[in-house]
Amino acid sequence: MEDFDKVLKHHERIIFHLIHKYGIRDEDGEFYQLGLIALWQAWREYDSSKSKFSSYAYLCVRRELLHLIDHNRRVQEKHEKWLNTVRIEDLMVEDLAHELDPQLLHKIQNALTMKQWKWFEHCLLHGYPLKEFAQKEAETYGAVKNCGKRARAKLRMLLTEEGYAL
After folding, report:
1. How far does Cα 22 stand from its chain's mean position?
2. Where is the domain boundary, 85, 111, 141?
3. 96 shares a domain with 77
4. Is 48 exposed, middle or buried (0-12, 13-18, 19+ CB in 10 A)?
5. Alpha carbons 122 and 116: distance in angstroms, whole number
6. Which residue among 47, 102, 128, 151 is the one 20 to 30 A from 75 at the CA level?
7. Are 76 and 116 found together in one domain?
8. Which of 44, 60, 85 is the endpoint of a domain?
9. pLDDT at residue 92, as a whole number
């Protein structure tokens, strides 16, 4: 390990250079740590007959940092895709299902028709899928979907009047 300490002392600047080159904000030290691991692996796997160590280490560290950048980008894209598919109502209802006070529930029930209330109670509060609810109520999927659409419009209006931010 004494040898790696010397390697680290002489080649640590490669890690800092690449972090700076790619404009990485490394508050948690995740990229630096990955760079250290890549430098250590380069030191262990280095074959002096093929190239200079500094060139090999640079390529190894660069490859690992770019892999992590790409991985983080893919995770961010999945998160953004999920955010684009989630409706405000879905997020709002999950909060409401746990935090609705009885007075607000009563106001919602009064604002909705009987079918809309059933939709609200089963699909939003209890999380039944629309298809299952449609089968249970002997309705078509389209009828349940339209009922939910009209109910959501009423809910938006009611919740806006009650001072809830949507």
Report:
1. 23
2. 85
3. no
4. exposed
5. 10
6. 128
7. no
8. 85
9. 54
